[in-house]
Amino acid sequence: MSGGVPASPRRSGAAPLPSDRKREALAAGSPIQPIIKDVGEIYSRLLDHRPVIQGEIRYFVKEFEEKRGLRELRVLENLKNAIFETNEHVLPKCEQAMHDNLNEAFKRLQAANNMIHRLQEREHEERKLQADKLMAREEKRVAHWEEFMKEQQNKRAEVDEEHRKAMERLKEQYSEMEKELAKYVSF
């Protein structure tokens, strides 16, 4: 550390401060002058730390400059060289590799995109064919149903006609039976 002895309250070679002048004027020729001098000395040793702090600052700066030297400058120079190396050699290589790989990836993506597009077209055509088949089956079913309903109506008409004829025959038969029965009842 500094090892310096604290200075007296009076600064060597410096003009006395206005507060020092007042003290001297009051204490001049007075029996308390040695007491004031002792109090000033005690003050400077106990409370005035400027000389000690300045010594410590000088010591710290000296140690910092000696021990560290040009280390920061060398570190900055190394960083500058690394950045220059990166900019001049590594970055162009990375850019070229990235460009080549991206072109290859882009070509693969285009091929995959074309394949997916063809698959989608096939799927769309398949769905269209299925929809067409479904529509044809639906139309066929509707036509079959209409034909079935016509047949049913024709059969119903035939059955109704047969029923009507059967009813007429039964009416005739019952009317004849009533006539015959009426013949036998009159006896």
Pick out its properties:
elongated; 4 helices; mainly alpha
Mean pLDDT: 82
What is the share of helical residues?
A: over 70%
- Fraction in beta strands: under 5%
Give the uncertain stretches in residue-range form.
1-14
Please state the overall shape, judged from the principal axes of the Cα atoms: elongated
SS-based structural class?
mainly alpha
Rounded radius of gyration (Å): 63 Å
Order of helices and strands: HHHH
If helices are DSSP runs of H or I spanning 4 or more residues, what is the number of helices? 4
Query: Main beta sheet: strand number and arrangement?
Result: none
**Number of beta strands:** 0
In whole angstroms, how far apart are the ends?
168 Å
Notes on the protein architecture:
This protein has 187 residues and is mostly helical. Helix content is 84%, strand content 0%. The protein is built from four helices and no strands. The radius of gyration is 63 Å and the shape is elongated. It starts with 17 loop residues before the first helix and ends with a helix. The model is unreliable at 1-14 (pLDDT under 50).
